[in-house]
């Protein structure tokens, strides 16, 4: 329970919305790949407002499937894409859980999720339930690929893996920041504490990710971006509230012997890996601050050396970073480059190309079999940001690994 509440730091404890409403499902079929577009339940934002929500029981394809891609973006009530300078999509995370079937009715009616739910994390090693999601990005969502090449997919809904009496379900952990009229758009998107109407005793009662009292030096990040807080507005600014939703598209195949399963790992550049003698302990912090004092023009570099208990063949890699990112690179133990992810910045006004914002991160699709990570190999993750003061910076590397290759690709 303690472990769960730690994750939930990343917003899940805040508000529970059980969502099952969609307004459009669209199915097509192409090379046995099915695809559907869903719209999540809506949530309200107003100028300067933060919305940090957990939407339980979202629509997800049924049955034993292999997911090929999962893409999401923020839309308004008319289904129009919302640009980042109006409402900044800080993150959306898709998280899997098992629900006790006999409790389902109670949970639906009471919205009490304290019993009957077991969260099931990805294959990554962050402590407890930190960074548990299988998909999830932020402002770069529209320009970042999640496609997995054939015959690879991430397997879900396998009845033999779901405990008896439970049902596999999904939730969204979403945080958006409405920056219309904001005194400092950049400050609000970085969750600067001094721009938010925090409660008076905020620093006295808030505990950090290590369950220690939050330091007065904490200037911004996830802990200050709480649901329904208000970011400082320009004097006299008024604007309408509006209802937004996540529109998400999932592509999948029915699982069969032709599919090759992938493991999914999130590596965090803030992981303070250590050992207690017998076990490796991953101590992920999820976010970090780029200090005010720079070192000239060279980027700020953060590094972590992360041992991979189990290796595999790299099939796809990309990263989740924030505006200001220079690049992120994953190295093997011998120093070889496994994958570099580089940013795309917007140059216009339209959603997906917002000027000055990070609008996409590139990924790597090595020829399957060509990039192998050995069991026990220590990988090095390096994330680089421009050398300017920044709070709530993130540096996650996402990798999909195949533990075996299909016969046809075996060398
Ligand atoms: C499911 O919930 C019911 C009611 O609380 C409980 O009796 C049962 O043991 C639970 N089932 C499992 C498999 O945990
Ligand atoms: C669900 O989690 C509880 C603790 O939170 C644990 O006791 C139980 O064994 C778990 N059940 C399953 C089916 O994993
Ligand atoms: C917060 O803690 C400080 C120092 O311990 C104390 O002086 C102050 O009164 C506390 N403020 C509130 C609102 O609890
Ligand atoms: C190290 O951590 C593991 C996993 O938490 C635990 O099982 C083990 O007892 C610990 N060992 C020592 C020496 O503390
Ligand atoms: C990443 O950024 C560093 C620093 O600017 C640069 O030296 C390096 O070449 C970049 N790597 C890639 C692959 O773009």
Account of the protein in words:
Keywords: Signal. InterPro entries: Stress_up-reg_Nod19 (IPR011692). This is Stress up-regulated Nod 19. Helices cover 5% and strands 39% of the residues. Strands 2, 3, 4, 6, 10, 12, 13, 18, 23 and 26 form a 10-stranded mixed beta sheet that branches. Strands 1, 5, 7, 8, 9 and 11 form a 6-stranded mixed beta sheet that branches. It has a 4-stranded antiparallel beta sheet with strand order 17-24-19-20, with no helix packed on it. It contains 4 helices and 26 strands. The N and C termini lie far apart (46 Å). It has 411 residues and is mainly beta. A hairpin with a 4-residue loop joins strand 14 and strand 15. It folds into 2 domains: 225 residues, no CATH class; 150 residues, Jelly Rolls (Sandwich). The structure holds 2-acetamido-2-deoxy-beta-D-glucopyranose (5 copies).
The total of beta strands comes to: 26
- How many H/I helical runs? 4
Bound molecule kinds, no repeats: 2-acetamido-2-deoxy-beta-D-glucopyranose
- Outline the low-pLDDT stretches: 1-14
Please estimate the helix content: under 10%
Task: Tell me the major beta sheet.
Answer: 10 strands, mixed
How far the N terminus sits from the C terminus, by CA atoms, comes to 46 Å
The average pLDDT value, as a whole number, equals: 92
Q: Per DSSP, what share of the residues sits in E-state strands of 2 or more residues?
A: 35-45%
Query: What is the molecular shape?
Result: globular
């Amino acid at each position: 329970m303690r472990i769960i509440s730690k994750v939930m730091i990343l917003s899940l404890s805040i508000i529970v919305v059980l969502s099952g409403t969609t307004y459009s499902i669209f199915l097509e079929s192409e090379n046995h790949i099915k695809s559907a577009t869903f719209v999540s339940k809506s949530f309200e934002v107003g100028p300067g407002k933060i919305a940090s929500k957990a939407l339980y029981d979202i629509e997800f394809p049924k049955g034993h499937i292999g997911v090929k891609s999962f893409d999401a973006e923020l839309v308004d009530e008319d289904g129009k894409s919302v640009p980042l300078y109006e409402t900044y999509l800080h993150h959306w995370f898709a998280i899997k859980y098992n629900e006790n079937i006999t409790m389902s009715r109670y949970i639906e009616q009471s919205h009490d999720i304290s019993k009957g739910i077991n969260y099931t994390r990805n294959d990554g090693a962050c402590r407890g339930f930190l960074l548990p999601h299988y998909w999830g990005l932020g402002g770069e969502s529209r320009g970042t690929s999640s496609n997995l090449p054939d015959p690879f997919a991430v397997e879900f809904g396998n009845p033999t893996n779901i405990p008896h009496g439970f049902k596999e379900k999904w939730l969204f952990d979403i945080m958006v920041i409405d920056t219309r009229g904001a005194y400092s758009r950049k400050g609000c998107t970085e969750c600067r504490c001094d721009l938010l109407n925090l409660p008076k005793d905020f620093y006295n009662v808030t505990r950090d990710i290590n369950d220690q009292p939050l330091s007065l030096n904490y200037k911004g990040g996830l802990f200050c971006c709480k649901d329904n807080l208000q970011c400082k507005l320009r004097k006299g600014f008024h604007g309408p509230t509006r209802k937004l939703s996540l529109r998400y598209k999932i592509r999948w195949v029915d699982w069969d012997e032709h599919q090759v399963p992938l493991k999914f790992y999130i590596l965090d550049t803030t992981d303070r890996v250590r050992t207690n003698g017998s076990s490796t302990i991953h101590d992920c912090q999820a976010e970090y601050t780029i200090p005010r004092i720079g070192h000239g023009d060279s980027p700020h570099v953060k590094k972590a050396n992360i041992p991979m208990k189990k290796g595999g063949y790299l099939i796809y890699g990309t990263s989740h970073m924030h505006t200001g990112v220079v690049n992120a690179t994953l190295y093997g133990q011998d120093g070889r480059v496994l994958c570099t992810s580089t940013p795309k910045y917007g140059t216009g006004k339209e959603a997906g190309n917002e000027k000055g914002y990070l609008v996409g991160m590139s990924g790597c699709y090595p020829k399957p079999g060509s990039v192998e990570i050995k069991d026990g190999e220590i990988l090095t993750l390096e994330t680089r940001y421009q050398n300017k003061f920044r709070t709530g910076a993130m540096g996650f590397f996402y990798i999909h690994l195949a533990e075996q290759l299909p016969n046809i690709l075996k060398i």
